[in-house]
Design brief:
Blueprint (H helix, E strand, L loop, with lengths): L4 H16 L5 H9 L20 E4 L2 E3 L2 H10 L7 E5 L5 H8 L3 E6 L2 H13 L6 E4 L12 E6 L8 H4 L2 E11 L4 E10 L2 E10 L10
Parallel strand pairs: 3-4, 3-6, 4-5, 6-7
Antiparallel strand pairs: 1-2, 7-8, 8-9
The chain binds S-adenosyl-L-homocysteine.
Length: 213
């Protein structure tokens, strides 16, 4: 895998495109300009790796569109050393972005083959603080809770209460909610039993499914 000047140039253009679309968080933009997205995709799509579109990664799943990654990462208000649980590892791209932003990442994937391939790839790229789990993300990781932040990268039909219970007070959960299309929700835990919900823009994610594969 090589990261050429051409790739770097294409990444710079992608970042400019994301700024035009309203992304302002410099930590997010820096991470996207650092991370070679083409490493996370099939060679067949390499030419298109820096267009702002999602791509298939096998098992009917996709690597999220860069704008979606940037949007979700911005909403998380990532601070250095934040303990973040990501549900839906997929290609591992989003987990790597959070790690580059200084977070301690715990990422869960229900498909064994995607769990294996993303773990192998990220380990070979030197991301050795990310923890990978092959589990049903609906249950979260109660043994590692509480988390500063929780990120769901698959579309949920409703907000899973069990996940919100794994959030620290003051913590933020970003989750797309809805059937065919999803509204992005930013949920802040303001007290033991109090949450503030913000309903934001519309997206289309692959479904948040139950059980392991
Ligand atoms: N964050 C990923 C996006 C992958 S798409 C990336 O950067 O590439 C969403 C992923 O969520 C898929 O890989 C899908 O298999 C996974 N997923 C769906 N339901 C899940 C569940 N209950 N637990 C864990 N992962 C799940």
């Amino acid at each position: 895998m090589t990261d050429s000047y051409r790739h770097k140039g294409l990444r710079k253009k992608l970042v400019e495109n994301l700024i035009e679309k309203g992304i302002t968080d410099h930590k997010v933009l820096d991470a996207i300009s650092t991370l070679p997205r083409h490493f996370f995709m099939d060679l067949a799509f390499e030419e298109k790796a820096y267009e702002d579109i999602p791509f298939p990664i096998g098992k009917e799943q996709t690597i999220s569109q860069p704008f979606t990654v940037a949007y979700q990462s911005s909403l998380l208000e990532v601070q250095k050393r934040d303990k973040i649980m990501e549900i839906g590892t997929g290609s591992g791209y989003q987990a790597a972005i959070l790690s580059l932003m200084g977070a301690r990442v715990y990422t869960i994937e229900r498909h064994e083959s995607l769990f294996n391939s993303s773990k192998t790839l990220l380990t070979s790229l030197g991301f050795n603080t990310i923890q990978f789990f092959w589990k049903d993300g609906y249950k979260g990781l109660p043994e590692y809770a509480p988390f500063d932040k929780i990120l769901v990268t698959a579309g949920a039909e409703s907000i899973p209460e069990i996940l919100l219970q794994q959030l620290k007070i003051g913590g933020i959960c970003v989750i797309p909610v809805g059937k065919k299309d999803q509204h992005m929700y930013k949920i802040t835990r303001t007290g033991e039993n109090e949450f503030k919900n913000e309903k934001l823009d519309t997206f289309r994610f692959v479904p948040f499914l139950t059980g392991k594969e």
